[in-house]
Every structure is written in C-alpha cells, then in structure tokens.
C-alpha cells in the first residue's frame, strides 16, 4: 500500500499556504471566465441534467395536484379570476362610455388572461425556487439553474391546460379562426423566454436578499394596471398606449389579441380607435430583444453567483 | 502508481461569524461604505468577523485508498467535503474530484413528503446525478436493499425516520461513482441495516474506488480507512495511517484527563510486540517501559492498562501491575510485557497505559496509546476476559 499522505510535521513549513507547492499537484488552474465560456458551461450542464429537470418539473406538478380538491381546475383559477375582474371593469366602463359590451371583447381579455397568469405564476414560483429548496442547495451539488427552470416548466404545463380550455371557449364568444393564429406560437415562445429570464434573475436575487420576494409581490399586484390585460392598450389613448407598450409584456399580449381576435397581421401597423398609429411592427423585435437579452444577462448573473449560493442562503 | 482521483491542494475556506446582510435595506449602507472606504475587498484575506473554517488543508486520494477525516465538531470535516463536492468554493487553493463523484451526504435531502417512495427514488436519484434509465434498471435492487418494499407506494411523510434514511441511503449506495464521498451516514437505520450499509461501502472501497469519509464512529474508520487525517479547528493535527490518526484523536480527547503529572512515574511508548490485528481468542503482547523516580506508596498504581472499545468509546477492560501481582515499587527504570488474550468481539480497540493515584482516581502519567484490531472468525465465546499476565523484562 503506497501512502501519499505525509505526516503533519513534514508539512509544517507549508503553513503560509502559498509559498510551497504540494507534491504531485498541478498548479491551481486560474480559469479566466469568458461570457461565451460561461454559456457553454451552462448549456452542457443543463444537457447533462435533463433527467433532473424532468424529475423536478414532475415533482412540482405532482405536489400541486396531490391532495388538492380542485385538481386540474387549479390551472384555470387565476385566469378565470382575471377574466371575472376584467368583466366587472369592462361593464362599468361600457356603462360610463355609453357603448355596449360585446362578447368579442371578453374573448380578447380571455386570450390575454392565460398568458398573464402564466407570467405571474412563473415569477412567483420562480422567485421562491432557490430559497424553497434550501436544503438541497446547501447539501447536494447539481447545476442550480434547474430549480427556476423546473418551476417555469411546471407552470408551463399548468398554463397549457388553461390555454386548451380557453381555446375551446373562444368560438362561443364569436371569435373565428384565421391564418393569423400562426402568430400565437412565436409570441408564446417570447413570453416563455421572458418569464424564464425573470425567474432566473429573481430566484438568485431573492437568495441574496429576502425582501425581493415582497417587492415582487407588490410589482405583480400592481403590474396588472400597467399591462394591458383587463383593458386593451388602445383604451389609453395615443400617448398612453405608446407608454404602455414599452412594458415588454404588453406587445406580446396585445399581439396575441390582435392576431387572434382581430385577425391582424402583426407585420403591418394597426390603427387605434381614434385613427392613431397603435401597433408598430418593431414592437415584436422590442419584446423579443427584452426576452433574449434578459435571458442572457440573467443566466450569466445566475451562473456567476451560483457557487456562493450555499454560503449565503 | 496511478493518478490521484481526489485532490485537495492548500485549501483555505473562510466563513463569517454573525449575520450577513440579508435584505436590501442592509445592502445599501454596506455598498456605500465599500464605495467610500476600502475599494476591492480581497476575498482571500480575513476581515472583521471572519474565521478560517479550513486552513491550508492538502491531501490526495489514489484509487484503492480510503481516507478518513476525523476530529471534534466544528473542526472543518463537513466543510472539506462540501468543498470537494463543489457545494462550496475554496477561498484559496484548489479542490478537485476527477471522475463522477458519488456523495453519501444527507441522503434523503431531496425527498418530498407528499410524494411516494417510488416517486422519491426517481427524484432523489436524479438530484444525485443518476439517469432515469439507470434508476429504473436498479429500482428493484434499491427498494430491496432499503427494506421498505411494502411502503414504496406510500407518501414518505408517513415513513418513520429510519425508513426515510434507509431508502435515501439505498439510492445513494446504488450510484455508480468513480469517487465516493461519505459524511456520517453509516449510523442510519437499525443494527442489521447498519451492517448491510457498511458492507456495501466496504465492497465499494475494496473494488478500488477512492473514498473520503467523515465519521465519528472511530471503529468504522479504523476498519475501512487506509489513511486518516485528524482535523481540529480547520487545521491538520495528525495524519498517517488510520490507527495513528485515531490514536492522536483519542489522546487529544483524553488530554483533559491527564492531570497532575507529578514526575513520580514516567511512561514511555506503548507498543504491540507483533501484529496490530489479532484473531479473537489469540494472545498478543504489549510492551511498555517507564521510570519510577522514588519509592511509591500503596495508593499509587504505577502501571494501569486499559482497553477501550472504539465502537462505544468505553473502557472494556482494566488491569494493572498491582492486580497482576507484579512489584514495580522500586525506583529506577522498568520494562514489562503484558500478555493479553484477545477475548474480544470484532472491532478496533485502543490500548492505553497510565499511572494512577488510586485514592483520587486521577492519572499522574500516561503513555501514547496503541490500536489493536480484533477479528472474530467465530471463536469469541462471549464475556470479555483478557487473562492478563505481566512479566518484568528488565
């Protein structure tokens, strides 16, 4: 038996740490971190963790539906609440303006309610995902990105059910199909990426500062007033709508409404009720830019602070 | 000689006492202070409230080697393992595991109470880095090893803590690691499960996988480890063979006992005449030499020999020159052989020698201890009776 261990006395002069090298060891490799290298690491780690992502997503979904009275109806609760609240607002609005309320408008709201509920759900569960799994983070090594990613995926599953049910209801609200429905998948993908970017960033921020969770709650509660969910962006007038469309979620939701309800091709501008220019095609690029840029930035922030998680949590 | 698979090169790890700023409100003053005062804080230096949890620790483990890390609570054992498994990052130095690590640490940390045992096996396995197909392949084996077959489709919140731990251990034990890292998981479950768990780890270690393990069960360390390190407050106090490190640890632990060194009796090193390992019932010879300064009185026992079980930490046998009818009262040097019959069950034992004041029951001198390993091939009849015989050799 060859023993590579040296007695403590022999290694006594290595107290100062840096001066003498340990026998047989290579010099510590000082890895220079490049952004590109970080992305490569993230992607390869995530690819190796496919089974883990799958299991964590499954766990989140299972937990939600186990011992739950409503079962899959949970997936519809938040969108239904948004639609009901929206209807109340819309009724008051139509009464004040003297114009009637037609079912197509309710359909337009329903189209936006599910994606909004998805976004809110992702941010809520995503923000809590790291701190909520504290015991794992401090005890077992695995790429931590899988935790927010898993919670976004579980939320995606919920929202797909909601989307399916809402789509079945739309024909009854007088909304017909058109070729513009093809806009729906790319818009949802952009929303998904945006939600993931927020979930990554906020989960990490919440781990370092616990009050982030409360800030997020406040923003989400009031976010519905600065996002065209209940009301359409056109209802805010020419200047108001332009400001509102600067919210990166707004062009996605309005785009969905325009394409699904109004059969509008999003590559063409659209005019608001007073004849002003309301939809500008570059809004699409704007939202996509936020989503992709946000994902890249938050992935880097997440990855670079990852190794301090266990100490800070 | 092959390449080391576990490498720990001059690793230092800093921790902070007290609370870190945890909310944004605390961050803002800290941030402004940093901007105004000392700019780039060096993360490799100690600052106010910091301490080194691990200082300048180096070791390597080769295939076939099993390294034990022992030491009192808070000595940096678990921190070292967390540095190895990449949960923590060293403040200075370099820690690396070459190959796929299998960590038997907190083996049921990923369990969720609302999920069934079956679902948790897949979840925990995935968290530990197993592929779903591998888990599926080994599922029956895992469940059988854990012994919770009947409860496998019950939510684990209804499990007893023992069942929980057994299932967790079984998952971890069926990883196929290149390197095994074990933190204090051998004490889970009942006695028969502990034996099974230990056997499993021994098989893995014997198969040539390099192992690092932390345990307070010194007899397990003695049985499994080829090498060991004794840590105290993050520093290496002793390293060498498992027997050496354990001896140093037991002595450090016992240092509080050695009071009132009167200089009346001095004892030199205790040695085993032959092998460290004996079979149950065989005889072994312990050698010790010493010096008596002046004529001693009746209440002083100049040479007491104690046998301590490392499994329990308790003394199992005490004898002495007076009891064995040997006169060591005359001043001057002496050397004796103590012939013992190892009527002991399998395990590791510490042989300790001391001079004792029988009235105060305090040690007045002690010698370095030595470890004895006993293997019982079925010859142990029960009843610890060592039938000591002492001979004065000079």
Oligomer: heterodimer
Describe the main β-sheet of chain A briefly. 2 strands, antiparallel
Question: How do the helices and strands follow one another from N- to C-terminus of chain A?
Answer: HHHHHHHHHHEEHH
The SSE string of chain B, one letter per element, is EHEEHEEHHHEHEHEEHEEEEEEEEEE
The poorly predicted ranges of chain B are none
Q: Helix- and strand-based class of chain A?
A: mainly alpha
Round the mean pLDDT of chain B to the nearest integer and report it. 84
Instruction: Output the radius of gyration of chain A.
Output: 25 Å
Going across the major beta sheet of chain B, what is the strand order?
Answer: 5-6-7-3-8-9
Portion in strands of chain B: 25-35%
What average pLDDT do the residues of chain A reach? 84
Helical content of chain B, roughly? 10-25%
Q: Which two chains form the greatest contact, residue counts included?
A: A-B, 47 and 59 residues
Distance between the termini of chain A: 42 Å
Give the secondary structure arrangement, pairings included:
The complex is a heterodimer of chains A (313) and B (394).
Chain A: H1 35-48, H2 50-65, H3 74-97, H4 103-132, H5 134-139, H6 146-169, H7 184-208, H8 212-223, H9 237-244, H10 249-260, E1 270-271, E2 277-279, H11 282-305, H12 309-312
Antiparallel strand pairs in A: 1-2
Chain B: E1 6-16, H1 24-36, E2 50-61, E3 66-70, H2 77-84, E4 92-97, E5 101-104, H3 117-127, H4 132-146, H5 161-173, E6 179-183, H6 191-206, E7 211-214, H7 218-224, E8 227-232, E9 235-241, H8 242-254, E10 265-272, E11 277-279, E12 283-292, E13 300-309, E14 315-320, E15 332-341, E16 347-357, E17 362-366, E18 370-375, E19 389-392
Parallel strand pairs in B: 3-7, 3-8, 5-6, 6-7, 11-18
Antiparallel strand pairs in B: 1-2, 1-4, 8-9, 10-12, 12-15, 13-14, 13-16, 15-19, 16-17, 16-18
């Amino acid at each position: 038996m060859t023993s590579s261990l040296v007695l403590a006395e022999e290694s006594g002069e290595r107290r100062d740490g840096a001066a003498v090298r340990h026998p047989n060891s290579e010099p510590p490799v000082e890895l220079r971190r490049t952004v590109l290298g970080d992305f490569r690491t993230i992607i390869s780690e995530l690819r190796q963790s496919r089974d883990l992502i799958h299991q964590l997503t499954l766990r989140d979904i299972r937990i939600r539906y186990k011992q739950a009275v409503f079962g899959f109806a949970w997936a519809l609760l938040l969108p239904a609440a948004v639609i009901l609240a929206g209807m109340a607002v819309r009724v008051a609005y139509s009464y004040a303006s003297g114009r009637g309320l037609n079912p197509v408008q309710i359909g337009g709201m329903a189209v936006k309610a599910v994606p909004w509920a998805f976004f809110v759900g992702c941010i809520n569960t995503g923000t809590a995902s790291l701190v909520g799994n504290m015991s794992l983070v401090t005890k077992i090594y695995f790429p931590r990105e899988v935790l927010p990613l898993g919670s976004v995926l579980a939320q995606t599953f919920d929202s797909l059910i909601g989307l399916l049910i809402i789509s079945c209801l739309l024909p009854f609200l007088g909304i017909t199909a058109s070729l513009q429905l093809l806009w729906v998948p790319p818009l949802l993908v952009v929303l998904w990426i945006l939600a993931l970017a927020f979930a990554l960033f906020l989960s990490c921020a919440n781990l370092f500062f616990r009050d982030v969770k409360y800030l997020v709650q406040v923003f989400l509660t009031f976010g519905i007033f600065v996002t065209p969910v209940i009301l359409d962006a056109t209802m805010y007038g020419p200047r108001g709508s332009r400001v509102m469309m600067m919210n990166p979620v707004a062009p996605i939701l309005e785009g969905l409404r325009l394409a699904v309800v109004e059969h509008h091709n999003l590559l063409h501008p659209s005019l608001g009720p007073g004849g002003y220019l309301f939809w500008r095609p570059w809004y699409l690029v704007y939202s996509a830019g936020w989503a992709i840029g946000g994902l890249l930035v938050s992935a880097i922030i997440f990855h670079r602070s990852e190794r301090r998680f266990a100490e800070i949590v | 000689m092959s390449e080391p698979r576990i490498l720990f090169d001059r690793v230092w790890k800093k921790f902070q006492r007290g609370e870190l700023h945890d909310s944004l409100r605390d961050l803002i003053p800290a941030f402004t202070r940093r901007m105004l005062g000392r700019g780039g804080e060096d993360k490799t230096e100690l600052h106010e409230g910091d301490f080194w949890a691990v200082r300048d620790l180096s070791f390597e483990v080769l295939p076939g080697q099993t390294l034990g890390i022992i030491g009192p609570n808070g000595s940096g054992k678990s921190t070292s393992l967390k540095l190895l498994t990449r949960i923590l990052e060293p403040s200075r130095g370099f820690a690396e595991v070459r190959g796929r690590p299998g960590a038997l640490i907190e083996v049921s940390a990923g369990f969720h109470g609302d999920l069934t045992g079956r679902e948790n096996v897949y979840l925990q396995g995935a968290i530990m880095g197993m592929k779903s197909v591998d888990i599926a392949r080994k599922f029956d084996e895992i469940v059988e090893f854990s012994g919770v077959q009947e409860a496998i489709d019950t939510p684990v919140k209804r499990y007893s803590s023992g069942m929980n731990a057994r299932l967790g251990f079984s998952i971890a034990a069926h990883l196929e690691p290149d390197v095994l890292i074990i933190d204090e998981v051998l004490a889970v479950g009942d006695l028969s499960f502990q034996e099974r768990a230990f056997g499993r780890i021994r098989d893995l270690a014997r198969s040539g996988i390099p192992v690092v393990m932390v345990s307070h069960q010194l007899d397990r360390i003695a049985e499994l480890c080829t090498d060991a390190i004794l840590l105290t407050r993050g520093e290496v106090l002793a390293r060498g063979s498992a027997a050496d490190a354990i001896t140093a640890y037991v002595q450090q632990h016992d240092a509080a006992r050695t009071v009132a060194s009167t200089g009346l009796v001095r004892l030199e090193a205790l040695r085993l005449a032959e092998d460290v390992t004996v079979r149950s019932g065989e005889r072994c010879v312990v050698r010790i030499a010493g010096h008596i300064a002046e004529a001693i009185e009746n209440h002083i026992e100049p040479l007491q020999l104690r046998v301590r079980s490392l499994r329990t930490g308790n003394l199992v046998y005490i004898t002495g020159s007076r009891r064995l009818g040997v006169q060591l009262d005359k001043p001057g040097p002496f050397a004796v052989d103590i012939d013992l019959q190892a009527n002991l069950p399998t395990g590791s034992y510490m042989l300790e020698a001391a001079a004792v004041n029988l009235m105060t029951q305090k040690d007045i001198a002690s010698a370095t201890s030595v470890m004895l390993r006993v293997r019982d091939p079925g010859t142990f009849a029960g009843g610890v009776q060592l039938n000591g015989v002492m001979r004065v050799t000079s």
